[in-house]
């Protein structure tokens, strides 16, 4: 279970998070929705310790995330970054197997490569992709390699930052299904960021809406459509009129 | 009136404070780089790659620089020496000037231009494309994986480059001395050898090591602290080259004081 309470984060005068409280139950997938620039990525990065929150506490299964031993803590996580964040100096398979080639999870090269190819197949990429470099791949393929890397070490907790942004609807559908499958199959806890409503419906067990630096609404996906919350209603129907300013 | 007078002063003050703060942060970063070099995990593959990139691929640039500098130095010393009929000092002064001063300084500056910029741009791009964040989430410390191998490689590679540059520079002086200034080849070589002391050479190599360290540390520092977007990377690259060059020249003065002031 991931518990966030009172998370604040500002960049200079820009107050991005102003007291985020959120609970993500183990084994469930939580989707965070919200306009761009509302701090969704910053929130995930706070949990991983990539961004230091100014105030508030984060705990994973009751253990304070800030004091946990970093290596052990991070070994439980996988993350798909918004832009893929593949290492462009390494071929695809070494990106996927990065964790398996060094550090505590290190294993023989041949075995790591095999696992990488297996994970690539899992995300719908052919074994030939393994020896290409990230720059030789299309955006959709890069996203899928990022996904394969995120799941390579079978993490307990997986974060997806806009997994379908920039993909065509078919590829987006494939990725959504894949995420759903991976989460169900691996029993992982997931947090995903997206503004794509079809993605929300495909992935989410629970939904949380981030706006104005706080969680405006959170609840199970089944209650999302019926909620009277004007922020959620405006967002899911993509209306220009409502409490969320169109010009930000 | 007073504000008009004080405004430029205030500007200078602010710039100075900013520069000092930057030097302090770079120094801390360098200290942290050393501590990461000394503690495992080590990344030998990254180290070897950095060694090839920083050392081997800098050879042509450093070699050309040394060749032309050695030649020009010989011409200068000859025409300057002629004023008090001391043309015969050309070989020894070329050798001493090359190994003590010009070899390490020009070599360091060329490496600063070539390597500090490329390190800053590479790491800066990794930073803005979230690759550094990705490294962290993959339980890999960016200081260990990116900074330590580059700093160690540069600290070892630049003295080697300086040694090669010294020889090529002396050879440049020899070519000009023998072909243009009418020196006897054997005498030129003998003069070079007789007046050159081991410490002349070794001090230059130590300087090279210091400059290599500076180049890699500033490159990594500005890369890691790159601002957002392409503009951020551009600024980081420029700042890295400027800072590395100035720090090399300042360090050169300090080391020369330490090594040679009686
Ligand atoms: N490292 C940073 N430095 C300064 N500002 C940042 C940084 N990271 C994010 N921000 C700012 O925080 C806000 C939220 O960013 P982000 O979390 O990326 O938004 P999104 O919800 O689209 O993922 C933006 O205004 C962004 O400019
Ligand atoms: Mg984002």
UniProtKB/TrEMBL annotation, chain A:
Pfam families, per database record: ABC_tran (PF00005)
All residue ranges annotated as the ABC transporter domain in the record: 2-237
SUPFAM superfamilies: P-loop containing nucleoside triphosphate hydrolases
InterPro entries, A to Z: AAA+_ATPase, ABC_transporter-like_ATP-bd, ABC_transporter-like_CS, P-loop_NTPase
Recorded GO MF terms: ATP binding
Record CDD domains: ABC_Org_Solvent_Resistant
Domain of life of the organism encoding this protein: Bacteria
Keywords: ATP-binding, Nucleotide-binding, Transport
Protein name from the UniProt record: ATP-binding cassette domain-containing protein
Taxonomic source organism: Albidovulum sediminis
From TrEMBL, chain B:
Similarity-based family: Belongs to the MlaE permease family.
Membrane topology category: Multi-pass membrane protein
InterPro entries listed in its UniProt record: ABC_MlaE_roteobac, Permease_MalE
Function: Could be part of an ABC transporter complex.
Record-annotated membrane-spanning stretches: 12-34, 54-75, 151-176, 205-224, 236-255
Location(s) in or outside the cell: Cell inner membrane; Membrane
Descriptive protein name: ABC transporter permease
Keyword flag Transport: yes
Native organism: Albidovulum sediminis
Keyword terms of this UniProt record: Cell inner membrane, Cell membrane, Membrane, Transmembrane, Transmembrane helix, Transport
Domain of life according to the entry: Bacteria
